[in-house]
Design goal:
Layout: H1 2-78, H2 85-163, H3 165-185, H4 191-240
Helix pairs in contact: 1-2, 2-4, 3-4
Keywords: Coiled coil
Coiled coil: 23-78
Protein name: Trichohyalin-like
Length: 241
């Protein structure tokens, strides 16, 4: 019975070690996923900085275009209808700047769509990472509680089985006492044989009493173990609440 209990405890410990190992492997995977998330966040930050820089450049281009437009308007009002070479040059510069602004606007639109896509990927990865973390924690706690419950049920079964042992011992003791009374009442012609029989009965009774004492100690220790196990079982529930 003691060996069986030790075997059950070893199985429970092995199960906990196995769960801890699996949790460690999953933690490594989660750590790798966290690194990927960090890389995505860094790329997103770089993209946002690039976008801000492009907006700053666009603002400067807008200012230059407006200044050139003012100059063109002033020249058109002050010059004759004949196109001045300088005015032609200004118009060409204006067209180039307008083309550059349109090109930059297209780049900004592409960059904006890219940022939106990266934000969606980042949000999904964060949600998935959180879900896996919660799931792994719950699975480990459920497995540990199940192992503890099985261990406690095993201890309770052994405790109930050992509770019946004192009754059996008492019955054996009564039987021995009846045999002793019978032997005392019987008449033996050989006194040496009678002495030997009485000594054997006394020894047997001593063994039975010793067994009763050992069983009482074992039951006391079993009660202490059971209370400790119940306390350990209630501790995770108390922390959870």
């Amino acid at each position: 019975m003691y060996l069986q209990r030790m075997t059950d405890e070893a199985v429970s410990i092995d199960a906990l070690h196995k769960c801890a190992t699996e949790l460690g492997e999953k933690d490594k995977k989660l750590e790798q996923a966290g690194k990927k998330l960090t890389n995505i966040e860094n790329e997103l930050e770089l993209s946002e900085n690039e976008k801000k820089l492009q907006k700053t450049k666009n603002g400067e281009l807008e200012k230059k275009i407006k200044e050139l437009e003012k100059i063109i308007i002033q020249l058109r009002t002050s010059l004759d209808e004949a196109m001045d070479p300088e005015l032609l040059q200004l118009e060409e510069q204006t067209e180039e700047l307008e083309l550059l602004r349109n090109t930059q606007a297209s780049k900004d639109w592409i960059l904006e769509n890219q940022l939106v896509g990266e934000k969606e990927v980042l949000s999904y990865a964060k949600a998935e990472n959180k879900r896996k973390t919660v799931e792994n924690t719950q699975n480990f706690q459920e497995t540990r509680l199940e192992a503890e419950e099985n261990h406690i049920l095993s201890l309770q079964a052994e405790f109930e089985e050992e509770e019946n042992e004192p009754q059996e011992i008492r019955e054996d003791l009564c039987k021995v006492e009846k045999e002793a009374e019978y032997e005392k009442d019987a008449k033996y012609e050989d006194r040496e044989q009678l002495g030997f029989q009485s000594s054997a009965l006394t020894q047997k009774r001593g063994e039975v009493e010793k067994k009763i004492e050992e069983t009482g100690k074992r039951l006391k220790n079993q009660n202490i173990t059971k209370r400790s196990a119940d306390k350990e079982k209630e501790e995770p529930k108390r922390r959870k609440n």
